[in-house]
Amino acid sequence: MKTALTSTRVELLREDRVAQTVWRLALPTMAASVVQTLNSFLDRIFVGRLGPEALAAVGVGSQMLFLTMALAMAVSTGATAIVARMAGANDQASLRAAARQALGLAFALGIGFTLLGYLLLPQIIRWYGLEPGADAQARQFLWLALLGAPGSFLMMGLSGTFRGLGDTRSPMYASIVATAVHIVGDYLLIFGNFGFPRLGIQGAGIAMALSLWAGAFMLWAQQWLGTRRELALPALPDWHWWRRILRIGLPASARTFIYTTSSVMFTGILAATAAGTAAVAALPIGLTAESIAFMPGFAFAIAASALVGQALGAKNERLAERFGWAAAWQSCAVMTTMAIVFYLFAEQFAGLFTSDPQVKALAVAYLRINALTEPLLAFGMTLAGALQGAGDSLKAMMATFITQWVVRIPLAYLLALGFGWDAVGAWWAMALSSGFSGLLMIALFKHGGWKKVKV
Fold first, then answer.
1. Per-residue pLDDT tens for 159-193?
2. Is this prediction's pTM over 0.90?
3. CA–CA gap between residue 237 and residue 327 (Å, rounded)
4. Residue 6, pLDDT above cutoff 60
5. What is the sign, positive or negative, of the torsion defined by CA atoms of 360, 366, 372, 378?
6. CA-to-CA distance for 212 and 65, rounded, in angstroms?
7. CA dihedral in degrees (354, 358, 362, 365; nearest 10)?
8. Burial state string for 72-93 with b = 16 or more CB within 10 A and e = fewer than 16
9. What is the distance of C-alpha 439 from the center of its chain?
């Protein structure tokens, strides 16, 4: 194993192949994002055949499972930063300890979150105020889907270790397997095809749980059967390591909660505009387009995280900085290209989702206004990943908080309601805050304080 890890480090840290290395690590993550998007799309189609109550139930259940992924991200981000640093330093003993502790921490948190989820399930579902039929189906779905929560944590923890080693292909393969299990499970268990029982919404919950465990097992098997077998066995809890992992990972996880809570407030501002329901309906159309653009941004952030961490571990700060900027510029190039497409074909894209003239017009405005700051958003996303890879996730979290709560929400209220610009004012607030986020992350990365952070 020592030889394999050392050769990986040497290959990744070649100074004459910075751009190629960034692209090679980002591409599998982009492919995995496409697969996950396809998974969500097909899942909604299958569940949609059960009726609107089932769609509402799975929508609510998916939000709760999304919180699971947000917490699991704490282990994943912490593992990536520490494993990358140890791989760069060729510190095999610490690398093994970090990877095995991350695996144990992921499993412990997964079990704990699952038990907490079952304990709070009735209160959580009641909080949404669903109609009786949708309420009952949400409970049935979540009761079974929550069984996959430990698998979700394991999958994220193992992915973090692989990415820290500079291996983004293994998580991609796991995503493909998980998606295949999910879609096949939906087809067989929701409708009772090929002799399987027709379970409806319960079948959707079982398919979700099985897919998460399948992804986790795929990653574990790749470690156990490959050159990293020693990393596939969780170690007994070591509070020192757990604190190190969570000190980096929790701020990264908190970024997701900041986005989620600010999105709720932003939607409330839209609902209070003159456009009201039409503005709220236009928002997910725009977000769907942006989610496609987010794929490369997220992929390059992952690449930057691993490469910056490894370069710092090798005590090559100049190379770490080169990796960060190379990833940011490549992300900017791809996301700018996509922004141009959405700007030019905004009407056609919006028309795929709605025929309502007002909703369509607002969605077109969203796409064209937000396209203007997409290049800066690319820098913001990617350099945040670079900071997290350096272990400086607290700065990335604070930048997100300032962007969302200090800039976006007050500005949206001022432009949409105070100045009377209605939903278009909210779109400008979103675009300007995204641009501000990019400028802020550029300033933080240029400052260089991340180079001195200890993990």
1. 999 999 999 999 999 999 999 999 999 999 999 99
2. no
3. 35
4. no
5. negative
6. 11
7. 100
8. bbbbbbbbbbbbbbbbbbeeee
9. 22
